[in-house]
Amino acid sequence: MGLRPFREVPRDLEEWTRWFNAQDVVSADDIEQTTTVQQTVEQIIDGGIQLWTIKEFAVSYTPVAEDADNILLVSTSATGVTVTIDPVFDVGSQLTIYQYGAGQVTLAGGTGVTIRTPTNLTINEQYGTVTLIEYLNNDWVIAGRMTP
Predict the structure, then answer these.
(1) How many domains would you assign to the chain?
(2) 130 closest CA partner among 105, 112, 108
(3) DSSP assignment of 126-144, as one string?
(4) Which residue range is the domain that position 97 belongs to?
């Protein structure tokens, strides 16, 4: 089981979808419900190599501080899951969440955490991606494919 490296960094959702579909990744049915699968991909940025971890989950998940920045959280669930953001991150942290499975991903703020969005706190459809950015202490903003 492993991820193939990028020939080029995907530029849009269609390219991301093609890249993910080409991977040899364990299905959510093969993963114990409390286990996450972590894999590292080398990504070339500005002439340097940056490690980028992809963490898959098939049940509701609460990211930890180590998940910040270059982490792509991938929901492989066929049923809805919730990603709860707890107050463990530093200002400037980013989380990217990709809804690979058919189950809708809902975002929630943990105790003392506010997530600001002009829409709902759900990713709008399968293969939708959002990025959360902590711009003030425990205050997050979302950019991406949210349900109107």
Answers:
(1) 1
(2) 105
(3) TT-EEEEEEEETTEEEEEE
(4) 13-144
Q: Which two tokens stand for residue 56?
A: 């898959």
Q: Taking CA 89 as the corner, what is the angle to CA 99 and CA 68, rounded to the nearest 5 degrees?
A: 45
> How long, in residues, is the chain?
148
Question: Measuring CA to CA, which residue among 140, 81, 142 is closest to residue 113?
Answer: 140
User: How many CB atoms neighbour CB 46 within 10 A?
Assistant: 5
d(CA 112, CA 65): 16
Across the chain, the runs of DSSP E, i.e. the strands, are: 37-45, 48-57, 71-75, 81-85, 94-99, 105-109, 114-116, 129-136, 139-144
Integer Cα distance of 126 and 61 in angstroms: 17
> Is residue 4 situated within a structural domain?
no
Residue 3 domain-assigned (yes or no): no
Would you say residue 50 lies in a domain? yes
Q: Tokens standing for 115?
A: 């997530």
- Is residue 109 in a domain? yes
| pTM across the whole model | 0.67
pLDDT at 103: 92
The Cα–Cα gap between 21 and 98 comes to 13
* pLDDT single digits (tens) 57-103: 899 999 999 888 877 888 899 999 999 999 999 999 999 999 999 99
φ and ψ at 61, to 5 degrees?
-140, 145
